[in-house]
Amino acid sequence: MPMRKLYRGGDPRRAQNIAELRAMAAARIPNFCFEYLEGGADDELTLRRNRAGFDAINFQPRTLVDVSERDLGCELFGSRIEMPAIIAPTGFNGLLSHEGDLMLAEAARDAGIPMCQSMVSTVSLERIVESGVRHWMQIYPFKDRENLAGVVKRAEVAGSEAIVLTTDVAAFGNREWDRRNYRAPMKLNLDNMVDVATRWRWLFDVLIPHGMPRFRNLGDFLPPGQDSARNAATFLSSQMDPSLDWDDVAWLRDLWPRKLIVKGILRPDDAERAKQLGVDGLVITNHGGRQLDTCVAPIDVLPEIREAVGPEMTLIIDSGLRRGSDFVKARALGADAAMSGRATLYGLAAAGKPGVARALEILRSEIDRTLALLGCPELTRLGPDCVRLPQR
User: Fold this and answer.
1) Which residue among 98, 135, 210, 287 is the active-site one?
2) Which listed residue, of 65, 156, 287, 355, carries a Cα 20 to 30 Å from 46's Cα?
3) Structural domains of the chain ordered from first start
4) Is 135 in the active site?
5) What is the secondary structure of 330-366 as a DSSP string?
């Protein structure tokens, strides 16, 4: 309809949903940043399948239920969270807004949910922990196990609740649209250089006067003076360890005394193997469609993984969540909580911390409204009877 246009200005209070924050982000940040945030691997079939998986699930509400008071909270590893959401680990956030990781942490703290910080974030893990957020630290399987153990020790000393091992990066996904923005590795082509020069709000937030963001948790891995986002990207890609196997999970389990979460599970047999090794939680994910194309959607395999590991294992899902109703569907099908990656990054890219806060406010209001309309006054009462799965 002609009058249906998404708001693209700078006031996050005017955003009605996550899609509107996405439109605002696209108007504020350079094309190369938005493409990095938005894109997927190969033909982006997995990216679209993640959304299609949620869209295909229908609700089956109860009626004549008193929902005048509703509780969106639940327990995660024995402690309450105020809604079934976690800020997902995402890298290079300093390119979206200055010290973007800290903004994500502070918004998560204020919303009463955890934040999982990426190893390739641009704020030190110690500063994020000091913000008071419930902190998890994500790590990549770098070849240098000694320095990897050093990052784990830093997280322990700082007070992180959990280590999250990402396991689905034996090779980097083929993100063709992202690469088209560059004439050489990390060197923008002319069109994108012109585009950057027109993004004044972004320039005076990210680059002026701060300069290129730096990786604050990777100093021991990188050559001296090579910790900027521009210089380090190529080096880091060479440090991923394709030999990672279950022995490394056992090594990490022995090294880390608190909650250990494995991120990258999509098969029931892998989930059972992780449980046998003493892993405390799993993230069911296809890396947001950024790694293997034509991959199964996490929401489609969630029920069978829950059946395989039983009710005690903590299961978290990510990839494709854009509405509060998606979090409700995930919870109904067996997830303890879900991770928000792009949804909250759209808020960050649109308006910094107020944008992240608005994204979480939107998701919370949508979860609350969905519970009311489902006839379910408490999140913890959700179950498979609340949804209808597509016929296979």
Assistant:
1) 287
2) 355
3) 12-59+68-175+237-377 (3.20.20.70)
4) no
5) HHHTT-SEEEESHHHHHHHHHHHHHHHHHHHHHHHHH
